[in-house]
Write a structure and sequence with these properties.
Length: 444
């Protein structure tokens, strides 16, 4: 969660206004597309590639502007969409990623009202101390510092009003916006790929707005993620409901603040190894991911532990997905690359159609994914990898994106969660500049 903007207000606009925002965005998408097509008649091939990138960025700005006006669950959906690797072009993804920095804190009167609705008493009766100013806020809620009667420090997560009731209408508007863009861009998947992705986002938003579910996840990970050096705050049951989550408050700082104290390389390596080992164990052993990799969800604690925050978005992974993923990675890391096994792994995952010939797989799909595959290989090509040397995620050209989407048969339900967690991990390790032992028993 980000630090709250004191001037912001809680989200809330009427249904007609929200519909008008979406309608205006659809109209702007249509006009942008017509203008792009008209100017394309006189462009060279090189100019066309640049114009396509600019056009996609413009579509992303239109989409983000509408979602930012809607706020609430629409803004959270923008965050999730921004992390759909391989599905949305870079121009659109980078614009949607701005949602990570939007916050909408509640005022004191709404805080008191919410606590009274949930527990029949205000903060002065429920807690020994309660800080009225939130110390963190995000698209769906905010967090306050408090202490219990016995002096235990806790964090109290409060949900903004009206969030749960807006999911259905917000996602209907979002589907309209994404469909409008999909019809006007060859680099955006069509309805058969987008529809299940949107349905899953709607399901996860409903789950994330149920703080009782998040409390259950805190307990589950606390019991099963037995890795020395990790700390998972546990919920306080009698002060937790669907809209309020009270949990142990961990002491530490977030990534950027920790980096400002200029930690040693050994300290960077220590936390980097913890992050990497946690990801691999969750992926292949526990088969359950902490799938919200925002840097604000990690605390660097003074005793050397890493605190894990925000378990609203988790995912239990199927055995077949994890096995298919290990098979694909293993084929990718072999020298030379085992394209036959990779095709079998992609078939097992359901990413490509059984009818795709070996020739088309090797001559069309593999070249389109070559830069991405080379980037994925880098950390595993040596026993210890220096993530400060990892280049940014390569951007697919419009041509590569079209070729990849041409052969995309389906999206495994677990894939978006893996993509978010994996990208979040690599970004964290790059920022840390950590040297990490990437050898592991699951990828061979």
């Amino acid at each position: 969660m980000a630090k709250p903007d004191k001037a912001a207000n809680a989200p809330g606009t009427g249904a007609l206004t929200r519909g008008a925002i979406a309608g205006m965005a659809v109209a702007r998408v249509g006009l942008a597309h017509l203008n792009h097509k008209a100017q394309g008649l006189t462009r060279s091939d090189e100019q066309a590639q640049q114009a396509t990138a600019e056009h996609e960025a413009k579509l992303g700005r239109i989409l983000f502007t509408a979602l930012n006006q809607l706020k609430g669950t629409a803004l959270k959906a923008s965050q999730l969409l921004s992390m759909e690797l391989g599905l949305l072009p870079e121009g659109i993804r980078s614009e949607l990623a701005k949602a990570h920095y939007q916050v909408t804190p509640l005022n004191r009167a709404l805080v008191i009202k919410l606590l009274r609705q949930e527990f029949g008493a205000g903060p002065d009766s429920l807690f020994q101390t309660f800080e009225p100013q939130a110390f963190a806020a995000a698209s769906l809620g905010q967090v306050h510092a408090a202490t219990l009667a016995d002096g235990q420090a806790v964090a109290v997560k409060l949900q903004y009003p009206g969030m749960a009731s807006s999911i259905g209408s917000d996602l209907a508007l979002l589907r309209t916006l994404v469909s409008a863009i999909s019809l006007r861009s060859h680099s955006v998947p069509k309805a058969n790929i987008v529809a299940p992705m949107m349905a899953d986002i709607e399901h996860k938003l409903a789950e994330e707005l149920d703080y009782l579910h998040e409390a259950e996840q805190l307990v589950w990970f606390g019991q099963h993620l037995k890795l020395e050096g990790l700390a998972v705050p546990q919920p306080i049951p009698h002060l937790t409901s669907r809209r309020v989550l009270t949990m142990q408050r961990l002491t530490g700082v977030h990534l950027n603040e920790w980096l400002r104290i200029q930690p040693s390389q050994a300290e960077r390596d220590h936390f980097g190894q913890l992050l990497f080992d946690m990801f691999m164990r969750c992926l292949f052993e526990l088969r359950r991911l902490h799938a919200d990799p925002h840097p604000g969800n990690y605390l660097f604690m003074p005793d050397g532990r890493l605190g894990l925050l925000d378990f609203g978005c988790t995912r239990a992974l199927s055995a077949s997905f994890c096995e298919g993923l290990a098979m694909a990675w293993s084929a990718l890391l072999r020298q030379p690359r085992d394209e036959g096994q990779m095709q079998q792994a992609y078939l097992r995952l359901g990413v490509i159609a059984p009818a795709l010939s070996e020739h088309d797989f090797r001559s069309q799909l593999m070249p389109a994914l070559a830069e991405l595959h080379a980037w994925q290989r880098l950390p595993f090509a040596v026993a210890v990898y220096d993530f400060s040397q990892l280049p940014p995620l390569p951007r697919m050209s419009a041509t590569q994106q079209r070729h990849a989407l041409q052969h995309l048969h389906g999206m495994p339900p677990d894939m978006p969660y893996f993509d978010r967690a994996h990208l979040g991990l690599t970004q964290l390790l790059r920022t840390l500049g950590a040297r990490v032992c990437t050898s592991n028993p699951w990828i061979y």
